[in-house]
Amino acid sequence: MNTPAQFYNRILVVEDDPHLSAGVMENLRAEGYDVHAVADGQAALDWLKGEQCGLVVLDVMLPQVDGFTVCRTMREQGNSTPVLFLTARGDPADRVRGLEVGGDDYLAKPFHLQEFLLRVRAILRRWDWYRSASATPDSAVLRFAGNEVDFRAFRARSWNGLAQELTEKEAMILKVLAERPGEIVSREDLLEKVWGYDVFPSTRTVDNFILRLRKRFERDPATPRHFLTVWGVGYRFLIEGES
Amino acid sequence: MKATRLFQVTALALVVVCAVQVGWWLFDQRAYAIEKVRDARALYSQQIAAAQALLDSGTPGGRVSALLPGVVIEGKRATLAPQVDEMLLSEERRRINQYAWEGGFFLLALALCNGVIFRALRAEARVRQEQESFLALVSHQFKTPLASLQLSLETMAMRPLSPDQSRTLIDRMLSDLGRMEAMVTQILESVRLERGRVDLRREPLELSGAVGRVVSHLDERARKERITICADIARGVYVLADPLALDVVVRNLLENAIAAVTPVGGGTITLTARQLAGEVELEVKDSGVGFRPSDGSRLFEKFSRLHPGGGSSYFGTGLGLFIVRRLMQLAGGRVSAHSDGVGQGAQFVLAWPVAPAGPT
């Protein structure tokens, strides 16, 4: 087992084409990452049971268990390791599906090496930011209006005593807002910080995530007191709540 | 697409109009027949009234009967003759029956034509859909070697590489090009086979010699992968087949078997032949990764690739077994696949018609 600092730099490549797998692996190694490669979905899930890594580069059309199922299974098992889908299926419906099952980014084959490396770096940087922003006991837990959010465990307990399992994106959005309480955070800022790229067609996605956070943590989601909309700009998070 | 939809809607509207027209015609003819019989009855009623008037004025019944043959005189009362009443009723029934049969026939003919048009349209839509999915699959199959090629080239452009590393990348790129070339060849071959643009010969071929030639081509490659190919075919067994097609199917099955045995670190491929009533079977048995028994028939579909997993280095196009099945069908033979399960090896059986007399 690696120490956290080591596994954050480690990347699992799941690709059944030996040439592509070797090419991706060599380039990631040349960039200084520690890389492990497997050729099918089941092998990836088995490996992830005993090992940790900072990113999974995941092909969609894989033998035995496909990439979407691998990602969904990871999330169901509480594994929040970021996933970059790398696949020949590049149509928008597939991209959306990849992100719906919990993927962080999606790159269609054939891809440009530099773009791939940039995306890998961007995902790792986002997660690096999230981890460092949740590193101390104070920053790891957010308490507001009877809600308690544990950023490291992606869990929360809402004001009515209900246990909440947060998705990575929900936790990240909440983290971005909690870092700047009382300030206006634009939708574009949230997209850039949480998704980083043009993976979603519109900023409406952010609105949907805010709705989900309101449902979890607001006493009356229809008249929010903590997750406030600033029309035409973005959102403002208030720890004390709007009177 | 829009034009087809417009055509379908127009055809449907025409069919509906025709059906309504036939229905209306039936109804109208029935009403007409009933009306005609009613008119005839009215005429006979006038005759009965005239007969009754004659009787009442004292004309003898026999004279009245002679004058008006459709009237029967019973005492001092004139009534319609039973045979006339019967004749009118049967005429009415006959007309209505005739129109019902004719109308029914028209409707049936219309429904049949409609069915034929519908089937033709559906078949055309299916062909179009198959073509579209074929194109989608083909482009998908090309993306992986293309991505690998691009990655290798960009790696060479971006990084300083040692001669060994460059050599590895060049070999990889050449292999990717080879994959794409093989795909193009197989795609063209499968399209040609699908359209039936092949003219296979049927001549007596000595099986052990034909199989031996393919084995000798692949033997070295197999040995590199620690695979032993063992061909145990008696001499003097002749099949009716096209020499090139036989070469292609045996080669495809052997390449498939090598690909299935390679991931398990080597093994054996055994070829045996046996003569049955009217045909000769060639079995290609391997100790490779196998497949789920339920996948036996699916393997021969286009682009259904064996995905054995476990680090396979097989670059399949997903067309090899499709081509094998098509060529065997055209040769009047058959092919089947069986495996006891993943990890249990596989058996492929080819069967050609036997050539009893050998070469003439």
Helix and strand topology:
The complex is a heterodimer of chains A (243) and B (360).
Chain A: H1 4-8, E1 10-14, H2 18-30, E2 34-38, H3 41-50, E3 55-58, H4 67-76, E4 83-87, H5 92-100, E5 105-108, H6 113-133, H7 137-140, E6 141-144, E7 147-150, E8 155-157, E9 163-165, H8 168-179, E10 184-186, H9 187-194, H10 204-217, E11 227-230, E12 234-237
Parallel strand pairs in A: 1-2, 1-3, 3-4, 4-5
Antiparallel strand pairs in A: 6-7, 7-8, 8-9, 10-12, 11-12
Helix pairs in contact in A: 3-4, 8-10
Chain B: H1 2-56, H2 61-67, E1 71-74, E2 77-80, H3 82-158, H4 163-194, E3 203-206, H5 207-224, E4 227-232, E5 238-241, H6 243-261, E6 267-276, E7 279-286, H7 320-330, E8 334-338, E9 346-353
Parallel strand pairs in B: 4-6
Antiparallel strand pairs in B: 1-2, 3-5, 6-7, 7-9, 8-9
Please tell me about this protein's structure.
The complex is a heterodimer of chains A (243) and B (360). Chain A has helices at 4-8, 18-30, 41-50, 67-76, 92-100, 113-133, 137-140, 168-179, 187-194, 204-217, and strands spanning 10-14, 34-38, 55-58, 83-87, 105-108, 141-144, 147-150, 155-157, 163-165, 184-186, 227-230, 234-237. With 243 residues, chain A is an alpha/beta fold. In chain A, the strands form three sheets. Chain A has a five-stranded parallel beta sheet, sandwiched between helices. In chain A, helix 4 (67-76) links the parallel strand 3 and strand 4 (83-87). In chain A, helix 3 runs parallel beside helix 4 (67-76) and helix 8 (168-179) packs across helix 10. Chain A is elongated, with a radius of gyration of 19 Å. Chain A starts with a helix and ends in a 6-residue tail after the last strand. Chain B has helices at residues 2-56, 61-67, 82-158, 163-194, 207-224, 243-261, 320-330, and strands at 71-74, 77-80, 203-206, 227-232, 238-241, 267-276, 279-286, 334-338, 346-353. At the A-B interface, helix 2 of A face helix 3 and helix 4 of B.
